[in-house]
Amino acid sequence: MSDWLYAVVGYRFHGDSIVTGSLPGRIHQLWLSLPVAGKALGVLVLLAAAGWRRSPPLGRIWLGAGVVGVLGGGNFHPHYYLQLVPPLSLLAAVGVRTLWLSAPRPAIVAAGAAAAATLALAMPVAWATPTKQAETIWPRDPHLIHDAVLARHVRVHTRPGQRVLAVWADADLYYLADRRPAIRYLWSRNVSAIPGALQAVHRVLATRRAALVLVVQPPAKLDPSGRTAALLRREYRRVARIGGAAVYRSRRRSPAAT
Question: Over the stretch 217-236, which tens digit does the pLDDT of each residue have?
Answer without folding.
Answer: 999 999 999 999 999 999 99
